[in-house]
Amino acid sequence: MTKFAVLIFKEQKFGRIVNVPSTAGQRGQAFHSHYAATKGRVIAFTKSLAAELGPFGITVNAVAPGWVDTEMSQRGSATSAGAGPSRETSRRGASRPPTTSAA
Fold first, then answer.
1. How far apart are CA 9 and CA 59, in angstroms?
2. Any idea where the domains of the chain sit in the sequence?
3. What are phi and psi of 60, to 5 degrees?
4. Residues 40, 26: contact at Cβ < 8 Å?
5. What is the mean pLDDT of residues 74-78?
6. Which residues of 50-84 are buried (b: 16+ CB within 10 A; e: fewer)?
């Protein structure tokens, strides 16, 4: 997909590419090395493309979401080693989904 977008962006001399890895690609994750490795690859790919395509007016960035504090992620951290928010994330505060009120 990126390959074809770059062709168009180079013609336009302008473009924006946003990749979505994960914070696991930055810090690694116990018992999920395969997942962390693939997300780390997306981060490295993003940095390489940014350096390569910048001179053509094309910016390349990554947004790496972390854990969202939900009931499901809490169950995962209690039942699976290495899954769910880490103690470090819990101390910093995982993102919380927006609350909705009944009308």
1. 10
2. 2-66
3. -130, 125
4. yes
5. 63
6. eeebeeeebebebebebbebeeebeeebeeeeebb
Around Cβ 21, how many Cβ atoms within 10 Å?
21
How far from 71 is each of 24, 74, 80, 84, CA to CA, in Å? 20, 5, 14, 10
Residue 43 pLDDT level (bands cut at 50, 70, 90) = very high
Q: Which residues are catalytic?
A: 35
Band (75; pLDDT cuts 50, 70, 90): confident
Locate 103 and state its tokens: 């009308």
For the chain, first and last CA: distance in Å? 43
